[in-house]
Amino acid sequence: MILHPGVLALVLGSIFVFLMTLFAAAVGGVILRRWDLDSSSAYQLSLERRTFLISTVMNYALGFQALSLFLFLYVVEDIHQLFVGAMCATGSLNANPTGWYALASKIGAFFCSGIWIALNSVDQKAEDYPLIRLKYRLLFLIVPLMALDLWLLIDYFMALDPDIITSCCGSLFSESGKGVGSDLAALPVKTSMIIFYSTAGLFFLSGSGSLYAKNGWLRYAFSAAAVVFFFSSLAAIVSFVSIYVYELPTHHCPFDLIQQGYHFIGYPLYISLFGAVFFGILPGCFQPLKRKPSLQGIIAGSERRWLFQALVWGGAFVLLTTWSVISSNLIYFPHFR
Length: 337
Hints:
Elements: H1 5-34, H2 42-78, H3 89-95, H4 98-125, H5 132-158, H6 169-172, H7 180-185, H8 189-212, H9 216-246, H10 266-286, H11 296-326
C-alpha cells in the first residue's frame, strides 16, 4: 500500500465508519425488537438513551463517509505522480481498475449517508420517534455498502504498484475511442449544451414551483429533475466544460479540472453539483413520510430549506459552468464572438 497521508486517512476512516455502522446496526436490532414507546420501564428509557448515542455517532461517521468522496478525488489526483504514464487522477484509477468501482461506491455512499442523516434529523425533531424503525432498518442496508466501500478501497490501494505503466485520460476520454468516456467526449458540443441548459431549466422551474406550491407531485417531479440534471451535468463536464477550461478542443478529462493548473475549479464544480442533486432528491424521498401526522409540519419546514439549498447549489454550478465557457479563450463557435 502507498503510505500517503490521504490514503491512510481514507482507509482508517472507512474502517471506523464500518465498525460504527456495524455497532449501530447491532444496537438497532435490539431496538427494533424491544422498542415500546408506550412503556415507561427502565429498559425503554435505556433504549431511548442508546438511540440518542447511536444517532450522534452515526451523524459523524456518515458525515465523514459523505465527505470522503472528495478526499478520494484529492488522493487519486495527488498520487498520480507516482505512476509512469499518469498525468491526472485518471491514470491513478487506471493503474488498478478497482479504483473506478471504489469511486462509484463512494458516490453511492455519499447519497445514502446524506439521506440517512436527513432521516435521522427529521426523526429527532418529532416527539414520538416515528421513523426510528425505518432508520434502523436502513442501517442494515447501509452496513453492506460500507463493507463494500472499505473492501474496494483496501483492494484498490493495496494493489497499486508504482512500477506499473498506466494509461491516462488521453485514451479514455478520446473522441475516437470506445467506452462511456469516449462516447461522452464525442457528443456534439452544441447538442450537449442544449441538453444541459434544458435540464437545468427544468430543474430550476420545478424547484421554484415547489417553493411556492405544496403539491406533492411537483416535489416528485423536482427530485426526478435533479437526477436527470445530475447525469446531464456529468455529460456536460466531459463534453464541453472541460474543453473550455483547458482551452483545447480535444481535451475532455473530467479530472484535470481539480488540478492546480486549472485553479482547482473542479472542486467547486463537483461540490456544487453534488450539493444540488442531494438536496434536490430529498423532497421526493420524504413525500411518503408526510402521511405520519407528527411529521407533516416538520417535513414541510425542512422541505423549504432543502429546496432553497438545492436551488442555491444548482445556481452556483450553472454559473460556474457558464463562466468557464464565456471566460475561455477557446473560440468553438466563431459566429458568437
